[in-house]
Design brief:
Radius of gyration: 21 Å
Strand order of the largest sheet: 1-2-3
Strand content: 15-25%
Shape: elongated
Structural class: alpha+beta
Oligomer: single chain
Number of helices: 2
Largest sheet: 3 strands, antiparallel
Number of strands: 3
Order of helices and strands: HHEEE
Low-confidence stretches: none
Length: about 120
Amino acid sequence: MTAETAIVLPVVVLMVLVILVAGVGIGAQVQLESAARGAARELARGQSEGEAVQSAQRIAGDGAQVSVGSDGAWVRVTVTRTVGARGGLLAGASWDLSGSAQARREPHLVGDGQGGGAP
């Protein structure tokens, strides 16, 4: 019984570690996507780019980089952040994650009133 435990225990610990790291990564990815969606929505409603960037940085957390682009009636926001392991077996490891969103500006904000075509 002791020999089986000695063989299985490291595998179980490794599996738990993988699940925890994956959970942190998925949580960070969802946070970045939410930040990009919020900023794109603000830009589509006519808020200034500075306000939208501040909102995205607040939602995404420390160290988030926000880039904004526009193509006629469409705005696109991309939020990136580096997520790293703070300690343990993966200390020093890091992952670059990004989330993006696109939204159509309100018709009254687009010069022709048509809202533009597809992106």
